[in-house]
Amino acid sequence: MEQPPDTPRIGVDEWVASVEGKRERYTGPRGAVLKRWERLPPAARVLVFATPAAVFPFLTSGGNLFRYGLFTLVYALLALGLNIVVGFAGLLDLGYVAFFGCGAYMYAILASPQFGNHWQAEAAIPVVVVFTAVVGLLVGLPSRRLLGDYLAILTLFFGQAFVVFVNNANRISFPFVGHADLTGGANGIANIDPFNFFGYRIDSTRKQYYLLLIAVALVLILLMFVNESRTGRAWRALREDPLAAEVMSIPVNRLKLLAFVFGAAVAGLTGAIYGTIATAALPGDYDVGLLITVYAIMILGGFGSIMGIVVGAMIVNNIPKLLHSSANARPLFYGTILLAILVKLRPWRLLAAELGGLVAFGFAIHGIASAAYPRLVDGESIGSGVSARALDHWMLFPKNPVKIADVAYILLVAAIVVYPQLSRVWRAVLLPPLLYLVMFVWENLLLVHIGGATRLILLGAMLVALMNIRPQGLFGTATVEIA
Amino acid sequence: MTGDATLLELKELDKSFGGLRVIADLDMVVKEHEIVSVIGPNGAGKTTLFNLITGIYRPDSGEIQLDGRNLVGMAPHKITELGIARTFQTLRLFLNMTVKENVMAAQYGHTKVGVLRSMVRTPGARREEKEIHRLAEEKLGFFGDRLMGYRWDQFAYSLSYANRRRLEIARAMATQARILLLDEPAAGMNPRETHEITELIGKLRDDGGYTILVIEHDMHVVEGISDRVVALDHGVKIAEGSFEAVATDPRVVEAYLGLRKTETK
Fold first, then answer.
1. What range defines the domain where residue A418 resides?
2. What is the pLDDT of residues A333-346, one digit of tens each?
3. What is the model's pTM?
């Protein structure tokens, strides 16, 4: 609406306006990419992800497709649902995984030998989704007046109650029916049917993968649309300030319930799909461990960012699995460190000096050790090839590394704790020795004994590093609490 | 300029917190297209009055009528939908949403499209969304170019203090309210901005057609805008009338200064 020209334009500070108007939100080559990305319509953004994902099954083996592809999509779908509740509406729901479990168990009851039901998928899936949505509504009803910590406690209770329930619901006494085995107790429900759409069975990994891909793409587009609708804005307003939202004509309680219901529905859908993939519903699958994983995905991707969720799911699912083999683990490990240094160290001269210092430090230590303590260099690095042999002339490899590496490990933890407290100069000076210590521990201890715990520690360290660089997550926007 | 139709009427309103009677037996009338200022020293119950009218607090007794309809017991969002919107003394914007989104979010009450329809973007949903955008732009346009253009996509937290106050008013306007309750719109503003707010409030009534109830401490603003002034002290209405009448009323002077005899102006 244009102002009529004769009204006085009181207090217009043209200088400020013109300066701020020139200020671009994004600059440089990264800005060019981001701007183009933002101009893409939602469907096109989904295609950017979906196209490589659709080609993926043709490039890899069945096992890899199952391990990497299928589980990434399951996690992504699950986190998308959680994102509605936590990311959009800002409700800290710690019982979310129970809805996932509800979906899996409900589908198992409808389509497994447990009760002799073998429903068609086109009938079973809507029933499962509606059922979990109703459970979401029931959990939401008493908690709709709660916020923050209180809501978190109540929903955590619900999540734990669900696990206890499915563990013990194998001998419930129903009126008229007598004892019934509802959930199979600790053994769970096995032999769940694959989806059967009008006679077409989704029974291979590849078919399941495409089904999941369609589900993820669909939910992704629907959520993008909702996010840009009045409901999406109302959710975000409620996350920002519930009281102000209420006074601005937004029915806060109803919207909270709505978020719960939609989150639960997505979780239920994911649960049903997961049930057919795992072919069993087991109580242990729906416990706190999964909850933490899903939250890690969302936090890593960035609260409320739909694309971030997909990327977060890729990282959280695939990196621990890639770390299974030392051939993958080494480049991943060094790649992450190098990336962090490249991002954090400026100017370039400092970066070059640090890396040069690291190389020189390594040769010096190796030289001293081979002259004075030959026992420190009588082993060799694992792996073959030029780079591994070259490493033998630079890094210390004791024949029996466990004891000294353990000590070094503890030293390293202490060093990492102390390092950020140092002044800038000391940090610059001590960086090469620190990196050398990291590499020593990695090469002699972690890489050799790369077991479950090591992988988790590594993943945790990477996440911590990442969150330090970008606290708002990869795709999130930094939020301001008080301004 | 002011019509005779009563728009908002408070009858024998009472509210206590514990033993403290914050609003006592308050009767008040706001007519259509009127600008009424509520003044009073700190703790007089002015903001509580706003909280009662908007449904954040429930009165212990008494009635609040909008167009003859009793609002007591209604949820705040319902009251806003019926036509009363407010701003906050301590700004409560949706800081991590953009300027335009703030104004768009406030249109929830008078829009209809449900979540399922917006999921698939039916033609109706698109039409309504377009209308939401248009109305948001119109309301932001009310403030000259202060909140226009590139500012639409800025986050609310990046705004200056004065612009935040403006955005709060724009947000309240976007609810399609008929009455605006402005809680200290000129607080924390420099003289020039204060002057601008004074003109703006007049413009809100004259061009926007709003009825305005405003709490304000700055007497220049109160003098400049008010058709009528209501003075509160300890929850009791101690004076009502034109600015001159109220400002020279001995009880008002006493409430502010605690003196019996003094010269005003």
1. 328-451
2. 888 788 878 877 87
3. 0.83
